[in-house]
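Give me the fold.
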Amino acid sequence: MAYRIYLVDDDRFLLDLYAAKFKGAGHEVTVFVGGEELLAALRKEGVIVPDAILLDIIMPGVGGFETLESIRKEKLAIGSKIIILSNQGQDSDIERAKSLAVDGYIIKASAIPSEVLSETLRTIETGIAGTGKAG
C-alpha cells in the first residue's frame, strides 16, 4: 500500500536521500525545509493529512518541538503518525517527544535510510514504534 509521507528537515541532502528512498518504495512524498513550511501546509483548508510526518528537532526558525507543540495545540494532522527523525538522542529529548505524544523516535546516526523506511511503515501499519534508539 502506498502512503503519503511528509519529511521535515533543514538538511537538503537528507531530505533528498529520504525522499528518494520513500518514492522508490512507491510512496507519495512531500518535503519541507522547516517547521514553518509544514505548519503552513497543514493549516490550509481542505488539506489531506499525511499518513506520517518525519520531523527533525533542530532546525532554524521554528524547531521540531515547537512545530510539534503547534500541531498538537491546533489539532493539525489528526490521524497522522508523527515520528521524530533527529540526531538528538538524549533521554531528555526522547522524553520530551513522548510527552508530546509522538508515535516514534528514530536517531539518524543509528539508522540507514532503509531502516527509516521500514520503521516508518511499521509505525503507520501497526501504530507500534521500535525501541526509540535505532528504529
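The first helix runs from residue 12 to 24.
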